[in-house]
Every structure is written in structure tokens, then in C-alpha cells.
Amino acid sequence: MTIGQKMHQTLTSLEAAKAQMESFALDTQDQNAQQQFNQYASQLQNITQGLKSRVNYIEQQEPQYKVRQQAMQQQATQQQTMQQQGQNQNLMQ
After folding, report:
1. How far is it, in rounded angstroms, from Cα 11 to Cα 6?
2. Angle between helices 3-27 and 31-61 (to 10 degrees)
3. Closest to 4 measured CA to CA, from 71, 59, 52, 50
4. Cα 38 → chain centroid
5. Angle at 8 between CA 27 and CA 37, to 5 degrees
6. Most buried residue, 1, 15, 63, 84, by CB count within 10 Å?
7. DSSP 28
């Protein structure tokens, strides 16, 4: 797994943790607990924004780390290959 993949995976985990904190805040009746969970969610949001900034910087400096773009390119290549295989099978019939 590349550093770019690891960073994107970490971003996904942070976003999920933030959503869980917000859910906990909604699920509890305790005002202190609600406030605490909302503070945790806010802290996770700040961490996420900082990491996103770092990911953007790294992807500008090192284009090979552009995980999303690479995934889209691979998907497009796979689709083209499948289309070509389908056309070849139609020609053979």
C-alpha cells in the first residue's frame, strides 16, 4: 500500500469517526456528554482538514500519489479492455 493510499484510508477513517461522534451526541440525553461528543467531532474535523491539506500538497509535489485519479484511470482502462473483448467476441460470431 502506498503512502497516498494510506493517507486516503486514514481520511476515510477520520470522517467515519467524526460521524460516529456526532451520532453519539444525538443519541445521548446527557448535555455534558453531548457537548463532549460534539467537541470530539470538531477536533476530528480539524484533523481531517489538516490531513486533506497535506494530501493535496503531496499530490501536487508527487503526482504518483494521486490515488483517486489513478483509480479512475485504472477503471477506465478496464472498461476499455472489456469493451474491446466484447467487440472481438461479436466479430468472431
Report:
1. 9
2. 160
3. 59
4. 22
5. 20
6. 15
7. -
Alpha helix ranges (H) inside the chain: 3-27, 31-61, 67-92
The residue behind cell 461528543 is 37
Better pLDDT: 8 or 41: 41
> Is residue 29's pLDDT more than 70?
yes
CB 65 within 8 A of CB 2: yes
**pLDDT tens, position by position, 67-82:** 655 555 566 676 676 6
Average pLDDT (82-90) is 63
- Mean pLDDT across the stretch 21-29? 97
- The answer for 28, left when phi > 0, alpha when psi is -120 to 50, beta otherwise, is beta
C-alpha cell at 81: 479492455
CA gyration radius, the chain: 21
Please tell me the distance from the alpha carbon of residue 48 to that of residue 17, in angstroms, as a whole number: 10
